[in-house]
Amino acid sequence: xxxxxxxxxxxxxxxxxxxxxxxxxxxxxxxxxxxxxxxxxxxxxxxxxxxxxxxxxxxxxxxxxxxxxxxxxxxxxxxxxxxxxxxxxxxxxxxxxxxxxxxxxxxxxxxxxxxxx
Length: 117
Hints:
The protein is built from 3 helices and 4 strands; from the N terminus they run βαβαβαβ. By secondary structure, the protein is α+β, with helices and mostly antiparallel strands. The termini are close together.
């Protein structure tokens, strides 16, 4: 069954175009190494909730946009192998990506799909 990495990221709205550029490159790299799909979504209808919400989960400010993304793989073993290659890829190295978003507030995790249609 498919394995999924999911992410929620707060991105300064002023740097959204930089994030899109980084995401396009990241998508190419992940797919080059065998990911099945790579999806990046810009928050459009993500209001602040009273107790919980996407913006609250990453401590987003009014000057930030919430990004929701996921990458799919054949299985966890494939994900682990692909991610190791991605992290070593020189295309993603460099200082130009360091200030695009605050990685300390990113929420991420790996998930074993049990139902896909």
